[in-house]
């Protein structure tokens, strides 16, 4: 259809807006159109467009299947997915499954029927081409930026999100998430799958620390995935592992002096492309338009290579958005890239050089013109703020184009080549700037110092006129530059001195022609090629022809009735003289007029002539004419372009239509004839394209007309409101495509227009054939706003924001409506009003301001006006417009009534309140109170309180703030306006503190309590957090405030928490602030010493956060009591000589208030040490007081606490620390003394303590001999274990605890043949009897429990299988639990004899009586298991003479008497024979 074409720029910030199929057809989304471009290694050609989307194209993809490569799919911000046939350029199917703008689409490379798309809300939709079905998924609630289907598995899709997340989903399982790839922290711009379906291609890289390290990735099927992100990194992901295996950081390559506009702050777009057949090579974009080829098998700077380094100017100058590649038949692989610099480039991936560049356009093509000197040099003025100069005759590069942007910074709306000087190009812009470029140099343009106030529409070179023509012979330029702009002014610029002031030619026109009235605003001008006359078009449709240089008016053409848009004189070369004076003109009407001015120019009349008939009339266009051009090759052949979207070639003399071109989408703005080919014409327009076409190849000869046009006109006229609404909507939404394309479309995007009349609007809509309405509803205007009011078409610049404003409601709607009656009634009103004003008696029935004459109240006296106001008020009340009634009463002087009405309706406002004092203080005060109530209903409490202050109601304002929980503001108000001792202040602080405490803001609540004088509550509320810092702060606060008891309590809680965390220094610091807590510091000191001395064995492995140097382990043979006493004296000044609060008696008395619970196995070890150290503190203080009885009892409790809590090893080590010599009567070596006990309880405690010390040493002796006699030890271990199996704690100790104790803290010593202690203490017969009785009681309790269980099972109906359950299983379980019980039962009777409940109860009573009769000291201070000790001693006697005969005999006797369990009997049988 067209020869060459420059398409619209590809859309920006889209992840996949271009794609190329296997046949070399490239599809690119520009605005709402897809452009199809045939590409090869040498050149390209725009082959057509796919038109249909109503909004921006956001994605495009071809089908990769060989049989369907002509099929493609596109997505758009209008929410639709469209399937196309690129051969026929037709729409196949449309899907509207998305409710939001679609951000990405991809046709699966594996499944020829699957298309996947994603939108901004995170919805993923699968489209099946062959069936038309769709399926929607919602894998993540995030904004989708890109997605790509796997080339190896049809059901795997990778989705990239705005927040940096990448998700792999399985579309065959309803979008189930397979992997979440986390690593990027910003937008995912692009995703690319490796062309190889495995993950072993990159494993050989030694520098990749995150690789598989030799594992075979082939075991799991996977594929590498590359991602590019805004965080400036490219990451390679393993989809098998779900993690990144490589990160590529972009090199910063931006060169200084590169041709990038410094005023545009670039953002990064990181696109990645993985070429087919290159598993180790990846192409990515970079910061400033460079393309980087990454070699994934290398590292460092060798890893990347730049494309296009063989010569300058190959790379893009701005960021790259999309890349796609294609294999040609000659095995060359081409890469196509699109960029923000509005160029499409083709690269050879073999040589990495640029093959060709296709320029694209990012705005309306406002103007185009061929140079009259440089043949074939075409200049384009575009709405993307750039000028393009295209050498159209170059044979090597068919798109040899240069872009100029310096000094422009606005849309280029007018261009004009210098008639003689090659390369000199003048330009005008949307913001009124005029300048001149030298296109053959790199210099910035010359800018005229005289700016237009509005858009420049036309530039023309012509002979200078006064005052610039004065002195022209003195070397001044032979040409001046004339510019016409939207404000209706034509300025004459001196090209040799653009810095000088330009002159307005209107002054010369007035002076020469003696014109006094105001000239019509000018809209266009055209100099005749010979420079003798100039034609100027005006806003009112008039064309004035002036004679140079004085600009004498020759004639005025009164043919057009609308704004003149374009004027063109016929050229004067190679044409008959009678054609030289033909002037063609086009306006906002659709007719082109041609006038022959030869007679007037050759024979100027004395007075200006008025022409009302044209020479030729060219009819056919259906909308306004925007530009025209005479053919330089033909006689009287003209081409015109119009808002009907077509270009029309005319034979002017015959008034015949020759050819009609319809290749554009939307209206056309500019046209020019090729200077070298008579059959070629160039046009540009609203669709962002420039097109070259041949006249002879066009199918049509006339512009389109017919039923569609007529029907559209009727429809638009039948529904004008809908038409207006649609145009406003399009104006609001039109800025989006242009912003995405880089051109900020505004009102000024429309050239040379006016606010359309109904006819013109119909023409425009019908003729554009475009699915997208214009980006802005109203075009740039060629008329001044002052003259616009006089014109029917009202040609003014309109801001789209003004269109949205509602017309304010009329204060007097009834009287206003009366002025819209028929003309006869309005004329009669004038007669009636005249009669009222000039007659003494008004006409009958006429009362101005009432009834049918209500509107006359405005033109009569005041009484009539008040009557009109009353009627208007009634109408407003009925309509519910209370505010208007208030203002009417206000205007009439009834201020009190206006305030009362506003109060009743709840429509008081600040303005009414500000004028209320005019009605008096009482009225003002009532109004304020009413306004306060209204504000409270509207929840504007602060404003309400402020108004209460204005009438001196301070307490009411405070109550208002308090009642609505605005405590902060209420307190500020009280402190600012009331005395410091005001009771309400304390109440406010207390209430606020309670609210803050309830919400968990403890610090703020504490400040409130402090301000209210409640220090106790402040400390308590801070302590509620219950962490160390809060407790420390609360303790200090209480101490400062004088709350001694609370301070001590909080300090102790804090110190306890710190001690639990092993922060001893911190705990002492907390307690040291209060002297009364000295005894607790002593307790902590003992705990720290105990923890440190027990830290060596694995039994107490703890890490100390912060400790004291004096707590480090010292000499091994110094008793623990001596260490404690020395540290107390050195660090705390506590000794036997201390007095006052440091005396031992006072400290002991304070320590008695500290409670110590009973030991249980659930207490953690740290707490066990804390409680044990408490008894040690008691013992040391008793020692200082020489209280031996209390000393030995506290030492016994200290040792028994860890033993009873299940920490047998800790108890054994503690015995060793306390009594290194093994003698409990020797309390200290450093302070020698022997303990003497007179009380029975103290003696019992000492014996028990000594027995346990001997018990531990007994086992030390046993383990020391274990290496010598392993067999005997193995044989005895069972017996020893069985002997105490009845005692749960001892069983645990023997089988687990003691073995650990043996290995950790008691290494075996050699050479112990004899016992070095008196073992007879271990063989206490009273304790043996007590222990045997306890075992019997436990056995009977077990049997009773078994009987109860059997009875309950029988009651539940389980006796059918239960006779066996009643006999055997319970006995077995009982035997398993306690062998001692079974042994004692066997000893009393035969196994087959069953016990009864009565017999068991009798036995239990007997045993309990025996326990009661035993002395309390035996029960209070127990000994180790006597039977167990007997067995161990007899075992020693079998291998060495370490046990005396008498002691052996005692042991044997005790075994015979109390060892009744089978295991004990068996062992004793072996040892006693």
Q: Can you tag this structure with a few keywords?
A:
elongated, five-stranded mixed sheet, alpha+beta, 1473 residues, single chain
What does this entry look like structurally?
Strand 52 and strand 53 form a beta hairpin. Helix content is 35%, strand content 21%. Helix 21 runs antiparallel to helix 22. The protein is α+β, with helices and mostly antiparallel strands and 1473 residues long.
CA gyration radius, whole angstroms:
53 Å
Distance between the termini: 124 Å
What is the 3D form?
Answer: elongated
Number of strands: 59
Low-confidence stretches: 203-219, 256-265, 720-803, 1097-1102, 1270-1312, 1361-1393
Helix content: 25-40%
The percentage of residues in β strands lies in 15-25%
Q: What is the spatial order of strands in the main beta sheet? A: 42-43-44-45-49
Number of helices: 41
Quickly describe the structure.
By secondary structure, the protein is of the alpha+beta class. Helix content is 35%, strand content 21%. Strand 51 and strand 52 (637-642) form a beta hairpin.
């Amino acid at each position: 259809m067209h020869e060459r074409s420059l398409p619209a720029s590809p859309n920006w910030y889209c992840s996949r807006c271009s794609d190329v199929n296997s046949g070399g057809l490239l599809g690119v989304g520009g605005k709402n159109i897809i452009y199809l471009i045939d590409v090869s290694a040498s050149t390209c050609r725009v082959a057509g467009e796919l038109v249909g989307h109503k909004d921006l194209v956001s994605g495009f993809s071809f089908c990769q299947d060989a049989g369907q490569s002509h099929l493609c799919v596109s997505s758009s911000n209008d929410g639709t997915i469209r399937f196309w046939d690129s051969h026929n350029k037709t729409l196949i199917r449309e899907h509207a499954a998305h409710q939001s703008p679609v951000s990405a689409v991809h046709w699966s490379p594996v499944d020829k029927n699957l298309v996947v798309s994603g939108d901004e809300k995170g919805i993923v939709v699968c489209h099946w081409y062959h069936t038309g079905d769709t399926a929607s998924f919602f894998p993540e609630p995030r904004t989708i930026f890109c997605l790509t289907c796997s080339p190896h598995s049809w059901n795997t899709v990778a989705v990239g999100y705005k927040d940096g997340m990448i998700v792999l989903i399985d579309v065959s399982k309803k979008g189930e998430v397979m992997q979440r790839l986390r690593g990027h922290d910003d937008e995912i711009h692009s995703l690319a799958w490796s062309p190889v379906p495995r993950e072993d291609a990159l494993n050989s890289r030694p520098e990749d620390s995150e690789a598989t390290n030799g594992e075979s990735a082939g075991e799991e099927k996977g594929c590498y995935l590359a991602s590019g992100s805004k965080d400036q990194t490219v990451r390679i992901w393993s989809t098998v592992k779900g993690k990144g295996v490589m990160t590529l950081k972009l090199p910063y390559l931006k060169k200084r002096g590169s041709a990038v506009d410094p005023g545009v702050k670039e953002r990064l777009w990181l696109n990645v492309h993985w070429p087919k057949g290159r598993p180790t090579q990846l192409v990515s974009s970079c910061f400033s338009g460079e393309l980087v080829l990454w070699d994934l098998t290398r590292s460092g700077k060798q890893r990347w290579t730049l494309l296009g380094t063989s010569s300058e100017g190959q790379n893009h100058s701005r960021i790259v958005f999309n890349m796609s590649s294609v294999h040609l038949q000659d095995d060359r692989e081409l890469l196509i890239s699109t960029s923000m610099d509005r160029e499409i480039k083709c690269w050879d991936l073999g040589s990495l050089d640029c093959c060709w560049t296709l320029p694209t356009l990012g705005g309306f093509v406002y103007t185009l013109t061929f140079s009259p000197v440089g043949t074939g040099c075409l200049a384009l003025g575009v709405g993307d703020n750039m000028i393009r100069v295209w050498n159209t005759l170059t044979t090597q590069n068919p798109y040899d184009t240069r872009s100029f942007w310096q000094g422009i910074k606005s849309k280029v709306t007018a261009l004009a080549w210098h008639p003689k000087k090659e390369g000199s190009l003048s330009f005008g812009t949307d913001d009124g700037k005029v300048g001149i470029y030298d296109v053959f140099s790199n210099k910035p343009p010359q800018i005229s110092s005289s700016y237009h106030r509005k858009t420049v529409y036309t530039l023309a070179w012509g002979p200078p006129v006064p005052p610039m023509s004065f002195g022209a012979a003195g070397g001044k330029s032979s040409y001046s530059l004339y510019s016409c702009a939207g404000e209706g002014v034509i300025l004459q610029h001196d090209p040799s001195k653009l810095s000088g002031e330009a002159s307005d030619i209107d002054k010369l026109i007035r002076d020469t022609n003696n014109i006094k009235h105001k000239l019509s605003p000018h809209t266009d001008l055209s100099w005749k090629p010979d420079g003798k006359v100039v034609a100027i078009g005006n806003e009112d449709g008039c064309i004035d022809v002036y004679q140079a240089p004085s600009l004498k008016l020759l004639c005025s053409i009164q043919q057009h009735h609308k704004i003149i848009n374009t004027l063109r004189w016929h050229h004067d070369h190679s044409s008959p003289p009678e054609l030289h004076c033909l002037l063609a003109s086009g306006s906002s009407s659709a007719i082109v007029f041609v006038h022959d001015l030869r007679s007037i120019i050759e024979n100027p009349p004395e007075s200006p002539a008025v022409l009302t008939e044209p020479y030729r009339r060219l009819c056919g266009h259906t909308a306004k004419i925007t530009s025209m051009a005479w053919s330089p090759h033909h006689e009287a052949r003209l081409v015109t372009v119009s808002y009907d979207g077509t270009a029309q070639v005319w034979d002017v003399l015959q008034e015949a239509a020759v050819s009609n071109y319809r290749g554009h989408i939307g209206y056309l703005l500019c046209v020019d004839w090729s200077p070298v080919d008579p059959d070629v014409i160039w046009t540009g327009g609203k669709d962002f394209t420039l097109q070259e076409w041949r006249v002879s190849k066009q199918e049509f000869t006339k512009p389109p007309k017919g039923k569609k046009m007529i029907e559209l006109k009727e429809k638009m006229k039948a529904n004008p409101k809908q038409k207006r609404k649609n145009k406003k909507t399009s104006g609001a939404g039109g800025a989006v495509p242009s912003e995405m394309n880089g051109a900020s479309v505004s009102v000024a995007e429309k050239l040379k227009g006016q606010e359309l009349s109904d006819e013109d609007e119909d023409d425009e809509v019908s003729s554009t054939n475009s699915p997208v309405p214009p980006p802005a509803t109203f075009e740039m205007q060629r008329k001044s706003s002052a003259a616009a009011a006089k014109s029917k078409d009202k040609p003014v610049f309109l801001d789209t924001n003004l269109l949205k404003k509602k017309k304010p409601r009329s204060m007097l709607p009834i009287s206003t409506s009366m002025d819209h009656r028929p003309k006869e009634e309005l004329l009669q009103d004038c007669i009636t009003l005249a009669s009222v004003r000039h007659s003494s008696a008004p006409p009958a029935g006429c009362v101005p301001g009432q009834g049918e004459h209500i509107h006359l109240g405005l033109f009569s006296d005041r009484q009539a006006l008040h009557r009109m106001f009353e009627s208007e008020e009634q109408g407003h009340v009925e309509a519910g417009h209370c505010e208007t009634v208030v203002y009417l009463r206000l205007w009439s002087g009834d201020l009190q009534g206006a305030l009362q009405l506003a109060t009743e309706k709840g429509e008081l406002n600040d303005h009414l309140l500000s004028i209320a004092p005019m009605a008096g203080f009482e009225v003002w005060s009532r109004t304020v109170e009413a306004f306060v109530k209204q504000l409270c209903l509207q929840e504007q409490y602060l404003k309400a309180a402020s108004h209460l202050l204005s009438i001196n109601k301070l307490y009411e304002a405070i109550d208002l703030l308090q009642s609505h929980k605005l405590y902060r503001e209420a307190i500020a108000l009280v402190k600012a306006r009331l005395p410091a001792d005001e009771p309400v202040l304390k109440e406010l602080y207390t209430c606020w503190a309670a609210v803050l405490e309830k919400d968990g803001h403890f610090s703020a609540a504490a400040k409130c309590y402090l301000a209210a004088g409640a220090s106790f509550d402040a400390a308590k509320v801070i302590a509620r957090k219950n962490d160390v810092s809060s407790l420390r702060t609360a303790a200090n606060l209480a101490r400062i405030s004088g709350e001694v008891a609370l301070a001590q309590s909080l300090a102790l809680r804090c110190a306890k928490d710190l001690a639990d965390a092993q922060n001893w220094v911190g705990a002492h610091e907390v307690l040291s602030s209060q002297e009364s807590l000295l005894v607790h510091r002593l307790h902590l000191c003992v705990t720290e010493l105990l923890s440190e001395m027990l830290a060596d064995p694995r039994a107490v492995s703890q890490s100390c956060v912060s400790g004291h140097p004096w707590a480090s382990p010292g000499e091994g043979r110094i008793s623990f009591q001596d260490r404690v006493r020395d540290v107390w004296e050195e660090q705390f000044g506590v000794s036997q000589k201390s007095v006052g609060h440091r005396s031992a008696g006072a400290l002991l008395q304070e320590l008695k208030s500290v409670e110590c619970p009973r030991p249980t196995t659930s207490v953690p070890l740290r707490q066990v040490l804390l409680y044990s150290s408490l008894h040690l503190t008691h013992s040391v203080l008793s020692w200082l007081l020489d209280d031996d009885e209390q000393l030995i009892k506290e030492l016994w409790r200290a040792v028994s606490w860890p033993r009873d809590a299940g920490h047998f090893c800790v108890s054994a080590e503690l015995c060793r620390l306390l009594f290194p010599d093994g003698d409990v009567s020797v309390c200290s070596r450093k302070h020698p003394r022997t303990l003497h006990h007179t009380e029975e309880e103290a003696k019992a405690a000492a014996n028990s303590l000594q027995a346990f010390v001997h018990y531990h040493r007994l086992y030390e002796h046993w383990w020391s001999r274990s290496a010598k006699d392993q067999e005997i030890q193995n044989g005895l271990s069972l017996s020893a274990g069985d002997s105490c199996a009845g005692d749960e704690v001892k069983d645990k100790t023997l089988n687990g605890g003691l073995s650990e104790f043996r290995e950790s803290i008691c290494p075996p010593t050699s050479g112990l043949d004899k016992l070095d202690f008196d073992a007879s203490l271990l063989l206490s017969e009273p304790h043996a009897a007590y222990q045997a009785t306890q075992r019997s009681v436990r056995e009977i309790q077990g049997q009773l429990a078994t009987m109860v269980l059997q009875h309950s099972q029988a009651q539940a109906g389980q006796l059918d299988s239960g006779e066996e359950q009643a006999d055997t299983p319970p006995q077995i379980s009982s035997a398993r639990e306690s062998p001692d019980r079974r042994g004692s039962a066997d000893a009393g009777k035969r196994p087959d004899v069953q016990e009864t409940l009565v017999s068991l109860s009798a036995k239990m009573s007997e045993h309990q009586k025996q326990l009661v009769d035993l002395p309390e000291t035996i029960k209070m201070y127990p000994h180790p298991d006597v039977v167990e000790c007997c067995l161990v001693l007899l075992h020693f006697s079998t291998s060495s003479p370490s046990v005396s005969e008498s002691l052996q005999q005692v042991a044997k006797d005790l075994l015979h008497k109390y060892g009744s369990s089978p295991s004990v009997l068996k062992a004793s049988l072996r040892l006693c024979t």
